[in-house]
Amino acid sequence: MGALVVSGGVLSVNSVQRPALGDLPTEGLYFHLDANDLSTSETAEISGKGLCVKKWGSVRSGAVANATATTTNYPAVKTIGAGDSARVKPGMKTIDMGPLHSNTTSGEGGGFGPWITKGSAENMKFTRSDDIRSAFFVFKGANTLLGHHGEYHNYHGAGLPRGNLSASPILCTPTDAPVSLTQGHSVFQGEPFYSRMFVEGARVNAATDPLENEYSIISLSTFYLPIRTSAFACEHYNNTIGGQEIGEVMLYTRWLPDPEIKKVEAYLRDKWYGQSTAGVRPVSAGAIEVASGATLSVSGGAPVETAGLAGGGTVAGDVALAAGAVIRARVDASGEIVDTLSVTGSIDFSRGGTVVLEGDVSNIKAGEWTLVASPSIVAGSAAGWTCASTSRHTMRVVARDGALVLRVAPKGMNISIK
Known about the structure:
Blueprint: E1 3-6, E2 10-14, E3 29-34, E4 42-46, E5 50-56, E6 67-69, E7 76-79, E8 93-96, E9 101-102, H1 103-106, H2 114-117, E10 124-132, E11 134-140, E12 142-143, E13 171-172, E14 195-199, E15 202-203, E16 211-212, E17 216-222, E18 227-232, E19 240-241, E20 245-252, H3 258-273, E21 284-285, E22 287-290, E23 295-299, E24 304-310, E25 314-316, E26 319-331, E27 341-343, E28 346-348, E29 353-359, E30 367-373, E31 376-378, E32 385-387, E33 393-400, E34 403-410
Parallel strand pairs: 1-22, 2-23, 21-24, 22-24, 23-25, 24-26, 25-27, 26-28, 26-29, 27-30, 28-31, 29-32
Antiparallel strand pairs: 3-20, 4-5, 5-6, 6-10, 7-8, 8-20, 9-19, 10-18, 11-17, 11-20, 12-16, 13-18, 14-15, 14-17, 30-34, 33-34
């Protein structure tokens, strides 16, 4: 991280907390399924597969639906290993919908879902919705996301497939879907006003752009025509199933505006990848220097994070200091410390750090010098702070009366801390 320097005037920054689960939109939530939280789900052990999911329950209250396995061959819970993904943190879990099966690749006869009939499907169904307008996934699979719906696209009233038998779709929509999903009026055909679909932050055409068979964060939204859906991982006539992993799914019956979409994407990116998102994270700098007369204005509700402070200006907001932070102050030719940084919000000195004096340190005068002033200081006695500079005097760092103070006394004189 580089330094943030305000040499004059006012610099405004927006520092926002990384979104937590409780910060996500709730209005219009259809369900929120998370393979890493099965506290509301029903699981079972299957020999040779381990822990499997019979019913995948929503992790947030107010949700309308849950997902249920279509056969007794329940999909397995998979733990992502260190070499399984270039993106996802090891230890995260997904629901593995099993290997890809299709009539074409297996040599089975066609018609009305023989894999379902045989009881081998590992896909899941849920109560059908005719009005899904926003959706978010952490998903691994190949080929395109969407395709045609057929006359017999009727698996539990479901199907949102591609129909090319090289991959099964994420979602399935019913026979009476409002549009054909491969035609020019498809809700996800890239019409800029009516819909949007992003994979890893890049806009794609859901019916033509293939996935890379890597874990991806995917967001869909449609302003005009809704998606109708009621199942995961099954295709036209149910002749193609499986071939995908689903880590997390959120469906909404409401079109989410861009700020809410960005918040959900940021939540998923932080949780699954350990990565922050620009505009949805605290402002962070290796060091902050605000010159006398200048102001760093912090908005957004989160403190600005830093490992160093300097200058005699003002930080209008809260500051979060890293452990072992460094505060720099200048000593002028007269032996006085001339830099007192003012923080109008809170600042926590309890993690300790070092004061470094610059300038004519050898001539520093005895007395008390305020380094940082704030109406809300957390520090106790600032016992974890030291002064790295040396002079003919004894120097101690203390916190009192809304300030972090450097006490300078001639050597041999006792310094009492009150």
